[in-house]
Specification:
This protein has about 120 residues and is an all-beta fold. It has strands at about 20-25, 30-40, 45-60, 70-75, 80, 85-90, 95, 105, 115-120. A hairpin with a 2-residue loop joins strand 5 and strand 6.
């Protein structure tokens, strides 16, 4: 089902029409909200596109799994850890995480840190 989710957000507070945010509370996550922009609800057969908002002092899990990640930073400042390397990232930087690679994203600023992440279904 083809669809357009119109952007309804503002700087550092991104949102899209018809897309709900989910505050994540799993172990290893801090102050992070996920929005599935394109995925099973849209019957996307191959990829899932997500937006993550990481509030101050927040981070994703330090984890590894089989799927690759394609990421573009939209706002804020953060760090991307890939294996044992840590990279400072900011708006419009892109990150590729290979499948099976240990990785984590952290907010290093006082403003929200947001990025789009695409993974295979």
């Amino acid at each position: 089902m083809s669809i357009v989710h119109k952007f309804t957000g503002k700087p550092n507070d991104f949102s899209w029409q018809g897309v709900d945010g989910e505050v994540l509370s799993d172990e290893g996550l801090e102050f992070i909200t996920k929005h599935v922009l394109i995925g099973p609800k849209e019957d996307a057969p191959n990829y899932i596109m997500r937006y993550f908002r990481v509030d101050a002092r927040g981070h994703s899990k330090l984890e590894r799994h089989p799927q690759e990640h394609e990421v573009i930073i939209l706002h804020g400042k953060g760090q991307a850890q890939i294996a044992d390397q840590i990279f400072d990232v900011e708006p419009f930087d892109v990150v590729f995480v290979s499948g099976g690679e240990l990785h984590q994203f952290k907010n290093t600023g006082s403003e929200p840190f947001g990025f789009i992440c695409i993974i295979p279904k």
